[in-house]
Amino acid sequence: MNEGLSALQQRLQHKFLNEKLLTQAVTHRSFSADHNERLEFLGDSVLGLVVADLLYERLSSLPEGDLSRVRANLVRQETLHQLALDLGLPEVLRLGEGEARSGGQQRPSILADAVEAIIGAVYLDTGFLAAQALVRRLYEAVEINPEMEAIGKDPKTELQEWLQGKKMNLPLYRVVGTQGAAHKQTFDVQCEIIELSFSERGIGGSRRAGEQAAAAAMLQTIKAKAKQ
After folding, report:
1. Same domain, 144 and 221
2. Are residues 114 and 212 in the same domain?
3. Cβ burial, residue 192 (10 Å; 0-12/13-18/19+)
4. Could you read off the pLDDT of 175-194 as tens digits, one per residue?
5. Which residues are catalytic?
6. Which DSSP letter does residue 168 get?
7. Residue range 22-77, pLDDT digits in tens
C-alpha cells in the first residue's frame, strides 16, 4: 500500500485487515473495472442507518418528518464532499487519465461517492460496529441541530415523506443505463412505486443526481394524478 493510503488509514483511524478494500474504495470506474460503485452502494445504506441512529439519539424531540429532513441534509452530496476534503481524498483517488484531466479529483460527486465507498469498505473489513464508529468520527465536526429542519427538502426526501404519510413502502431506485465516456458519464435512473404501479426516470451526472431527478419526476406525476 502506498504512503497516501497508509496516511488515509491514520486519518480514518481504521487499519484495514484487507487493504485491497481501501484501494477499491478510492478507485473510480474510469480507472479500473474493479471500481468502487458496489462499495458505494453498501456504504450509502450503512451511512443512512448510522446517521438516523445518531439523530434519534441527539434530536429526541423531533418528529419523524423533521428527522428525515435533517438526515437528508447530513448525507447529501455537499456534506459528503466536505468530509472527503477533510480526509484528503483528492490526493488518493485513482482516476482514469481522461477523468483526471477534466478535474475529477475535485468533482463533488466523485468525492462524495468515495466517502460512501470507504464506509462500505470498513463495513466489509471488520463489520458494522467499526463502520458505525467511523461515521460517528466523521460527523464529530459537523453541526447537528434542530434548526437544520428548516432547510429545504430535496426531491428524494419529499417523496419519501409523502409515501410515509400514506403508509406506503419507500420507492425503489435502480440504474437502468449509463451513457458517455467514463469521465463524463450520465446515469439513467428509474424510480418505482410498486403499490401505485408508478415508474419514472431521471438522468444525472452521478447516480445520486439521477436518483434526485427520477424522484422529482415521480413527484410531478403524483401531483398531476392528484389533480385529476
Report:
1. no
2. no
3. middle
4. 999 888 766 788 999 999 99
5. 44, 116
6. -
7. 999 999 999 999 999 999 999 999 999 999 999 999 988 888 878 888 888 899 88
